[in-house]
Amino acid sequence: MRLLKRLTIFTKVLAAPLLVIVMLGAVGTFTISSLGDVVTSVNDLGRRSVLLQGSLHVKADFLQQLAYIRNYILFGDSTSLDKIEDAQTRVYATLDDMYAHAQSQETFGRIQKLRSLQEQYDAVLDSVAAQVRSKDTQSATAILQSQGVPLMESILEE
């Protein structure tokens, strides 16, 4: 009987560390699983942040292009053309960065649509600049109002 009692105590002493090790393993597994979810959520937030910031930068660059072309029409400031080209370059770089972070087909489609609208807008700005160079500011203004402004509105809505 004493031997059985001692054996039970001995078993309990050996089983206690094993039980603690099993419990630590379960807690560790749960922690690793939870951290995986946190990492996924943080990565998703980072991706969405890039898309949101990119969208804001693209809109700001579009509006700057409009301001620069108006300055060029009104004042004949040739440095405005360089600034327009810089803004266009930034727009394409931002769209490329956004495209790299997009995951859904809808987002890909919207970014491609923005790129297409930017290319159309670039063509309008080129024709406006050509009109201003030939000293026909009225035609340049008319082109900007009839073609550029509707494109700008559709870009800003996107």
Count, helices = 4
**Approximate shape:** rod-shaped
Let me know the largest β-sheet.
none
In total, the number of strands is: 0
Q: Please state the structural category.
A: mainly alpha
**Percent helix among the residues?**
over 70%
Radius of gyration (Å): 31 Å
Oligomer type: single chain
Gap from first CA to last CA: 84 Å
Strand content: under 5%
Give start-end ranges of low-pLDDT stretches: none
Mean pLDDT: 80
Helix and strand sequence: HHHH
Descriptive notes:
The structure is a single chain. With 158 residues, the chain is mainly alpha-helical. The mean pLDDT is 80. The chain has 4 helices and no strands. Helix 1 (2-75) runs parallel beside helix 3 (105-133), helix 1 packs antiparallel against helix 4 and helix 3 (105-133) runs antiparallel to helix 4. The protein is 93% helix and 0% strand. It has helices at 2-75, 79-101, 105-133, 137-157. The protein is rod-shaped and about 115 Å long.
